[in-house]
Predict the structure.
Amino acid sequence: MRAARSRLTFSGRSSGADKLFEYGVLAIALSTLILVWGLVLKLAVDAQPSIDRFGPGFIIGMQWNPNTEMFGALPFIFGTLLTSGIAILIGVPLSIGIAVYLSELAPPWVREPLAFVVELLAAVPSVIYGLWAMYALRPFIAHSIEPFFMSFLGWTPLFQGNAVGLDKFTAGVILAIMIIPTVASVSKETMRAVPDSQREAALSLGATRYETTRIAVLSYARSGIFGACILGLGRALGETMAVTMTIGNANRISWSLLDPGQTMSSLIANNWGEAQGIQLSALIEIGLVLFIVALIVNLFARLMVGRIMKAVPTTGGGL
Amino acid sequence: MSEQKANIGKATEEKVAMPHKGGNSMIMVVGAMIVVVVVIAAIFATGLLNGGTKESVTLTGAGATFPMPLILKWADEYYNSTSHKVKINYGGGGSGAGITQIKDKHVDFAGSDAPLSATDSSTYGLLHIPETLGPIVVAYNEPSVVNLKLDGPTLAKIFMKNITVWNDAAISALNPGVTLPTDQITVVVRSDSSGTTFAFSGYLAVVSTEFQTLYGQGKSVSWKEAIGASGNPGVAQTVLTTPHSIGYIELSYAKKNNIQFALLKNQDGNFVTASSETAAAAAGSASLPAGNGDWSHVSILDAPGADSYPIATFTYILVYKELYNDQSKMNKTAAKALVDFVWWAVHDNGQSFSSGLYYAPLPASVVSLNEATLNSITYNGVALR
Amino acid sequence: MNTFAYRRMKNRLASFAALACVVLALIPLVYILFMVVKTGAPAISWGFLTNRTVGTGGPGEGIGNAILGTLLLVFYATLMGLPIGLLTGIYVSEYGNNKIGYTVRFFNDLLANFPSIVIGLLAYALVVNFLQFGFSLFAGSVALAIIMIPIVSNTTEEALRMVPNSLREGALALGVPRWRTVLKVILVNGKSGVTTGVLLSVARITGETAPLLLTAFYSSYWSTSLKEPVASLPLTIFRNYNSPSKELLQQAWGAALVLILIVLSINIGVRLFLRKRTGKGKVVKNWKQRLSLRT
């Protein structure tokens, strides 16, 4: 009895084995700290030569020329933003529609299997998305979608050139498909977090399903849905393979969606093997920029989603 | 913590209802993992039986996709002819990547159609060993146009986007009697740093002063409005799947996949089709430096001769003269294996596969040159052959 | 005109629109699975699964060594990443209500934010360059392990948090030492959540391509050595997806089929089995996990 009691402790005097375990686990946890620090440091250190040479002008530099050793990030920041923008433009409305359906409209026997299937979309590896995009999506876009847009928007700078299908448009579309599971699932969860009392109140006032959703659910879950979109944006920013395989790999700025482009991540994937010296340093600086941008976006998203999820107690259910 | 407290009520009931149900699912998961481990272990075991990792040597190369079909063929044949003792990996990636990786000593040898710059040759102690040569063809996707004829200046204008449509006057002039479509030309180029680009842009620079001024020769060119694809295979497939497109690829890729390519007008004024013979004709008069010399000016572009194909190039295997160094993993057996492999490749054993894959077999003078180079390779100062 | 009929029509339209969104989103998934199966299945044969990728597109080639390579990469990555992630998660959940724990969690979130291509770049700088391992199975595994750690850590932490305090208190009251409580009581009770996290992260790294490009590099042989480059399913797809050679393209589709079967089986298996077990419990517990698992 006395022996048992002496081991009863939450902190303070614990037995030798306890201390060993705790410190062991702590050591491992600290090792991840060291790992992350090491990675960020290595990123910064290896980017240093490029930072020194090009300074802040790197961000607005328009050239990427290994021959003259002039490197700038603007075409790739542009490409990243444009393709992610298209992804959001196409993906978000679809995702919200899906979330509304899953959260409000679906009969219970449909809800779980359907949510399950939507999440399965996220499990498909990026490279397989790219493969499919190359041989199914690209022809469809080049033969049907792009000519369609060109027919009435061909006068705008957005739809100039040939409809070849290896361009920012296709890259944007495949990105849209890839962010749907994230945005839809998180939106759905924020919607489910809205207390039923809100819905009941609207319904009792005679609102239709649509009106209830609009008034009681969507506006309440607004910031959470916004956060979900930002999460999707964060996902789109870092996506590499499917984009590399569809974007046409052109290191220059072009406003036409039908022109090939390049994102920060696809540039790294393409130039990785051949880059050396200052070019490698510039590439790593692009990686650093990408990391920082993704970090800011994701932190912002968590803030937004965290707010709604904390404010309202979760009502379980669903996937 | 408050979250947990809120959940205690619900969760405790659940947990009380099922305390330690390891459950069938856990067993299945663990079982599955055990199966995977057993499978891997089995494969380890068969791997050891399969020729043994102790005796075999693995060499890794990277670089040019120009000679890749040939090098991969050699790798396979050599693997069989050495009874599975020498494994050769060749990962492609483009000449630029090959050069970078051999400079960093991450690969045992590199392939490059572009020679090293003079400074690089002397700084790094790398040797050039031309292992084959071949033509670069202008592939296009316009099924209605058979046997398209082009000349240097027109070709340059197409790639500079001065000519943008197929039925441009300049192209029509070279192809009398042929109805050219009105479609816009989609230009396909290499997205990676490429020796094929080096040779192709070198030719355009020779035949067009405007190209020389605006773009110049290089492994990377800042092309105007072109789609970039990775590697010779990438450009080939992109041309194949993009109507009205035009691109530059090595002959082997065009022939093996039935891609149309143009006849080019050579220096003598003849329209020549690309083949191993016409490439060999272009190489005929080339004088090459010693293996450890400066190869930066070696060029058989726009070669004179009635049958010479204007865009032909040697492609080089780059290896270190001294194969021992603190960083490399190469032991003496591997070093000897590398030298023996390249020896095998540049002689009949390897060269016999060239024509079948549409490359030109090396002229005898080049083979002798390579022999001297290979004989000079040392391991810790001692020659390996 | 706010008549009821008008509102009812709007309601119907909206419902229809929402359903249309669902259908539209399902089309790519169904199409992808359909196409991968249809185009990849003809390639599959016993020979295809057991021959090595020679690269010449000749007869008798296969993706056997790519399958082995992927298994090895995942095996070593899990060997390195699982213990570290697990123990970090345990630390943060059980001992981490302090500044250190908070910092560790923050840094793990930071790690989860690295785009996978940047992780590959860093693994290249550290393992291939700095440690002079060259292109190797080891370098590839390290890259994948780095991706795995924050996911396992996060899901473990969340799963263990769900275990009610009453169990901890009860065990301690019975005199069970802290370390045994954690291992035998808490971990066991959080088993399903932890296993889910581990398996989903395994599925995720199996499909990763970008980090392997210049770490695992390329091999056309059966290789089990940590110091040699290794073939893998995602890289086989990436290297051959744009190949004019019908045989090599076929290898890509065949590899895609095998890869998607592996990844989807793990995902479906996890969701089916472990969901049944925990009844109403969610599989992906919250949006934070969702982000790191990329769902």
User: Anything to note?
Assistant: Chain B has a mean pLDDT of 88. Residues 23-49 of chain B form the longest helix (27 residues). The CA atoms of residues 254 and 260 of chain B lie 7 Å apart.
